[in-house]
């Protein structure tokens, strides 16, 4: 069993504008998957990329944008998105405040 709060979980600076937290992983007992939280400061974005695993996004705070397969999808708190295997995508902050989202991937997606 594992219980915590996001404010107590280590934050790893990925770039000047992006922070990552591993909320739940096999280390905490969730076999085969990892739940991460990303915080994108104003101007923050992930690079365009694709990978051979699917993942799920859930917007927590702020305004974001998911660019996937040539189309933009606005994200606001409560928005969910499924990104299939090998889909070209990018997540970015679309507002003036921080954008926070959860991303769930198979364990190999967080290596």
UniProtKB/TrEMBL annotation:
Is Protease given among the entry's keywords? Answer: no
Query: Does the keyword Metal-binding belong to this entry?
Result: yes
* Domain (Cupin type-2) ranges: 37-105
Task: Tell me the GO molecular function terms.
Answer: metal ion binding
Superkingdom in the source lineage: Bacteria
Q: Which UniProt keywords apply?
A: Metal-binding
Q: Which CDD domains match?
A: cupin_TM1459-like (cd02222)
> What Pfam families does its record include?
Cupin_2
The record's PANTHER family line, in alphabetical order, gives: CUPIN TYPE-2 DOMAIN-CONTAINING PROTEIN, OXALATE-BINDING PROTEIN
Q: What is this protein called?
A: Cupin 2 conserved barrel domain protein
Q: Which organism is it from?
A: Sphaerochaeta globosa (strain ATCC BAA-1886 / DSM 22777 / Buddy)
């Amino acid at each position: 069993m594992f219980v915590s709060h996001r404010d107590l979980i280590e934050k790893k600076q990925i770039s000047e504008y992006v922070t990552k937290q591993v909320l739940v992983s096999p280390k905490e007992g969730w076999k085969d998957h990892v739940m991460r939280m990303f915080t994108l400061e104003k101007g923050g974005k992930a690079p365009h990329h694709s990978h051979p695993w699917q993942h799920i996004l859930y917007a927590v705070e702020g305004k974001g944008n998911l660019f996937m397969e040539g189309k933009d999808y606005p994200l606001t708190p409560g928005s969910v998105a499924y990104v299939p295997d090998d889909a070209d995508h990018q997540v970015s902050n679309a507002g003036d405040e921080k954008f926070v989202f959860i991303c769930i991937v198979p364990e190999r997606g967080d290596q």
